[in-house]
Design brief:
By secondary structure, the chain is of the alpha+beta class. It has helices at residues 7-10, 18-23, 39-49; strands at residues 11-14, 28-33, 55-63, 67-70, 73-76, 80-87. The protein contains three helices and six strands; from the N terminus they run αβαβαββββ. The strands form two sheets. The chain has a four-stranded antiparallel β-sheet with strand order 1-2-6-3.
Length: 100
C-alpha cells in the first residue's frame, strides 16, 4: 500500500540531537518523515528538496508513541517515523544543517 504523497509532504523536519549531529560527519542525515512514506519516497524527496545531493542508502524506523498520563487517564503520543539518509561520497552536503 504505497501512499500517494508528494515529495514535499514526505520530510517533516530534521532531527537535531547530539547523536544525529555526530553522524553528519559521515554524511548521514536524520529526518522525521511521514509514517506512510517508503524508503524510495524518502530518497526521491531528499534528492528533489536538496539539489546536488545523491542518496546512497535510506534506513527507516517506526517509533511508537510514548505512554503519557494525565491524572488517572492514560494515553499515547503520536507515532512517528524516522529516516537516516546516507549520501554518496561525491554528493553535496545538505545546507540546512550548516552552522549548527
Amino acid at each position: 500500500m504505497a501512499a500517494d504523497l508528494k515529495y514535499y509532504d514526505v520530510i517533516l523536519k530534521p532531527v537535531l540531537t547530539e547523536k544525529s549531529m555526530a553522524a553528519m560527519e559521515e554524511k548521514k542525515y536524520t529526518f522525521l518523515v511521514n509514517p506512510l512514506a517508503t524508503k524510495s519516497q524518502v530518497k526521491e524527496a531528499v534528492e528533489k528538496m536538496f539539489p546536488g545531493t545523491a542518496v546512497s542508502k535510506v534506513n527507516t524506523m517506526n517509533i511508537d508513541g510514548k505512554r503519557k498520563r494525565r491524572g488517572m487517564i492514560f494515553g499515547r503520543t503520536a507515532k512517528t517515523k524516522k529516516a537516516i539518509v546516507t549520501l554518496t561520497a561525491e554528493s553535496k552536503d545538505i545546507e540546512i544543517f550548516e552552522g549548527l
